[in-house]
Amino acid sequence: MLGLDIRNSHSHCHLKPPASATNRFWRCRRSAAMTAVVVGGGRREVDEEEAEELRRCLAPERLDVLEQMEPWVEAHVLPLLKPAETAWQPSDLVPDAAALGAEGFHAACVELRERAAAVPDAQLVCLVGNMVTEEALPTYQSMANRFESARDVTGLDGTAWARWIRGWSAEENRHGDVLSRYMYLSGRLDMRQVERTVHRLIQSGMAMHAPASPYHGFIYVAFQERATSIAHGNTGSPHLFAHYAAAAQQAGVYTASDYRGILEHLIKLWRVEDLSAGLSGEGRRARDYLCALPRKIRRMEEKVHDRAAQLRKSRRPSRSAGSSIGPSMSCFPS
Q1: CA–CA separation, 232 vs 131, rounded Å?
Q2: Can you tell me the distance from the alpha carbon of 209 to that of 212, in angstroms, rounded to the nearest whole number?
Q3: Are the C-beta atoms of 28 and 38 separated by less than 8 Å?
Q4: GO terms for CC (predicted)?
Q5: Residue of 228, 235, 232 lying closest to 120 (CA atoms)
Q6: DSSP per residue over 144-178, as a string?
Q7: Coil, helix or strand at residue 20
Q8: Can you tell me the distance from the alpha carbon of 239 to that of 250, in angstroms, rounded to the nearest whole number?
Q9: Which of 21, 10, 52, 14 minimizes the C-alpha distance to 34?
Q10: CA dist., res. 323 & res. 173, Å (int)
Q11: Residues 225-253: b if buried by 16+ CB within 10 A, e if exposed
């Protein structure tokens, strides 16, 4: 199923939400090689380096920063959310039977299927991966609700962070809906197989590095949202498995160049190169490492391009991971 047949459960990576605000801080117990980290009642094994990273990021003074940012989030972040009355909805973008009537709906679906028939298989594979990624929204909302000092503890918290998480989730929910409806109406996919994949993906969950750290979490979200914006714009998504990464690279919908561009954009936006005040030696090394990454990725791109040019010149068949797309597409109806 397009490489998305997820069978393994990762329940051991799940962390339970906190029972109360007094239970928000972590505890750790060292062993020779591993550390048991407890966050909000959930326990998982990590190595010592990650445990130290967690200790720093979840220190009370670090979490207080998030609480002190509440007025800023209220003033600058929440206004970015659009009310349901003015936001686009999936029915605005695909045929709506109630609005078009029986004959109009039928004609619109015929036109949609004719246009969808011209979509190349590689782009369609990426579109499926994109849709499956979006449909795993419950996993992403639960991920955000693990961030210390920025979570929605009761499900109806009035804090700016909690309202942002709910509002973001409400807007994100439309993406999977519209993609699913388009693919259903296109007639090009075995939707039952796709739906089984979504089911397995949500059921399996997703392990995340430093899952309770709002610092790790928000940086991850910044990269992910920027990458998703690029992938959506090119009708593809690289964020599931190597199979999809190969398809996205081959189809040109998301490449190493795009990833490098995201790094360059965020490094400039956050003025990482200018950071110096208060940085320890470790902090300066981390800053320099991050700022050097785009150049390293560019060199990798150049090597890949040179190798591809040599293969074309020798007319040797190029066997890439993307070449396995066709036989693997069991979600395509026969």
Answers
A1: 10
A2: 9
A3: yes
A4: chloroplast stroma
A5: 235
A6: HTTSTTSS-SSSS--SHHHHHHHHHHHHHHHHHHH
A7: coil
A8: 15
A9: 52
A10: 32
A11: ebbbebbbebbbbbbbeebbbbbbbbbeb
**Alpha helix ranges (H) inside 82-153:** 97-116, 121-135, 137-144
Residues contacting residue 283 through CB under 8 Å, at least 6 positions apart: 275
Residue 73's contacts (CB-CB under 8 Å, 6 or more residues apart) are 160, 161, 164
Q: How many Å apart are CA 155 and CA 225, to the nearest integer? A: 23
Q: What are the angstrom distances between the C-alpha of 142 and each of 19, 55, 76, 155, 206?
A: 15, 22, 23, 11, 10
Residues 72-120: tens digit of each pLDDT: 999 999 999 999 999 999 999 999 999 999 999 999 999 999 999 998 8
- In the DSSP assignment, the letter for residue 82 is P
pLDDT in tens, 147-156: 999 999 999 9
Q: Is 27 exposed, middle or buried (0-12, 13-18, 19+ CB in 10 A)?
A: exposed
Sequence letter at residue 143? M
| Secondary structure (3-state) at 120 | coil
Helix then strand count (H, E) for the chain reads 13, 3
Tokens found for residue 77: 């972040």
Answer yes or no: pTM beyond 0.70: no
* Cα–Cα distance for residue pair 2/148, rounded to 1 Å: 36
From the list 9, 8, 27, the residue with the least C-alpha distance to 212 is 27
Superfamily of domain 11-88+119-328: Ribonucleotide Reductase, subunit A (1.10.620.20)
Nearest one of 159, 129, 130 to 144, comparing CA atoms: 159
